User: Which sequence fits this backbone?
């Protein structure tokens, strides 16, 4: 890299962002607010649709909304004041006071998406290769664009990460999360009351299930209009995994079988397994219109910066969902990158400092997620 480029001042940078989900959006918003010129390229052709539903709205996500968007976090979040553990027969095993704040993936996505001007968010544009020194992105149609900085926010299956670190791949953690959301209005009132204001768990021998309320499909947080979000971690062996992840079209998927794509026998057999859960969870699983499933993975990159390319969010580190930190980490990566560019004299100094702190954070989080998951699912590693 030329001396001049290495010493470039981090002001009014032209930035390309590959990936327009939580990480890409948060980075685009944070950088634009500091006077940089980010453009987001998202390969999907339509509005992204929630894969799951619920996310824990950690404090840094709420702070981001307050500082960078026009929405007040309270208007798109639900909360609980108690964490409860049930016995297999449905009794209360123990409970602790704990304030938690939740939102839905779609409500958060909509707010972040609305904060980015249309001309800065290009849909249907896939990055197929990068040149790190010149921060150049090559697109599927053969075009190329170069900038001061290129951000890779392509998620856990990032193709650019594969290009930069061919030996680094997500590794399967030997269990999956069955998931679903159910409208509050479809729940029997006794079941609804059981979950209201609580973060409820059942810890079985090699499974863990939890549920909490999230906003409704239109973002409403009014009781009666919310949805119950549940996650059921369950171990699987190799053959079962292949079977589960082969969808209704016969395609074997790697990470998620989305709502509507699970084959009937798979869905039926998982609903049968729910008989071993506390009765309220059994009811919730039985009444959920569409179950779906996601494989649990760990991923760590050796570096988050290569020349003028930065990897962030799930492209860089995927920590297990027990850490409740996937979206919070993507937002944290974005905010700290913007902060580092403000605090340093040159782009290179900023990237070196950001790489060090966020890589350490991501590494710690992935380790913590492994410990938490293996303990809860009683997996030896
Ligand atoms: C549609 C969708 C729904 C989700 N739903 C939930 C949920 O309900 N609950 C939950 O906890 N987590 C959910 N997640 C995951 C969660 O958003 C992420 O784990 C976390 O927020 C980190 O976000 P990210 O931006 O790093 O990665 P991701 O959210 O995975 O986003 C990566 C984005 O990059 C795009 N992309 C990938 N490769 C390219 C390329 N080469 N060129 C251009 N674009 C590319 C993808 O289409 C995607 O939009 C969802 C993710 C997506 C994409």
Assistant:
């Amino acid at each position: 890299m030329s001396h001049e480029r290495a010493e470039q001042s981090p002001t009014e940078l032209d930035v390309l962002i590959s990936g327009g989900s939580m990480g890409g959006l948060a980075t685009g918003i944070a950088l634009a607010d500091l006077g940089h010129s980010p453009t987001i390229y998202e390969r999907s052709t339509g509005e992204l649709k929630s894969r799951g539903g619920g996310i824990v709205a950690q404090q840094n996500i709420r702070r981001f909304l307050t500082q960078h968007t026009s929405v007040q976090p309270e208007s798109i979040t639900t909360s609980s004041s108690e964490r409860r553990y049930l016995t297999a027969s449905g009794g209360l095993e123990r409970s602790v006071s704990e304030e938690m704040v939740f939102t839905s993936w779609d409500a958060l996505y909509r707010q972040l998406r609305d904060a980015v001007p249309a001309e800065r968010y290009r849909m249907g544009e896939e990055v197929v290769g990068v040149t790190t020194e010149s921060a150049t992105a090559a697109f599927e149609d053969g075009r190329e664009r170069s900038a001061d900085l290129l951000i890779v926010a392509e998620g856990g299956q990032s193709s650019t990460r594969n290009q930069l670190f061919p030996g680094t791949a997500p590794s399967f953690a030997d269990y999956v999360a069955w998931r679903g959301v159910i409208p509050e209005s479809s729940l029997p009132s006794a079941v609804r009351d059981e979950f209201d204001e609580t973060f409820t768990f059942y810890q079985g021998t090699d499974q863990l299930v939890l549920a909490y309320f999230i906003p409704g499909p239109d973002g409403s947080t009014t009781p009666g209009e919310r949805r119950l979000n549940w996650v059921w971690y369950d171990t699987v062996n190799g053959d079962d995994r292949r079977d589960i992840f082969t969808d209704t079209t016969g395609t074997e998927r790697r990470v998620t079988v989305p709502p509507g794509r699970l084959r009937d026998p798979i869905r039926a057999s998982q609903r049968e397994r729910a008989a071993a859960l506390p009765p309220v969870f059994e009811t919730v699983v039985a009444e959920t219109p569409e179950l779906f499933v996601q494989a649990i993975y760990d991923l760590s990159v050796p570096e988050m910066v290569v020349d003028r390319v930065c990897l962030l969010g799930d492209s860089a580190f995927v920590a297990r969902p027990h850490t409740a930190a996937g979206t919070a980490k993507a937002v944290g990566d974005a905010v700290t990158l913007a902060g580092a560019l403000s605090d340093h004299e040159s782009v290179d100094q900023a990237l070196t400092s950001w790489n060090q702190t966020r890589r350490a954070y991501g590494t710690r989080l992935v380790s913590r997620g492994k410990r938490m998951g293996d303990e809860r699912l009683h997996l030896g590693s």
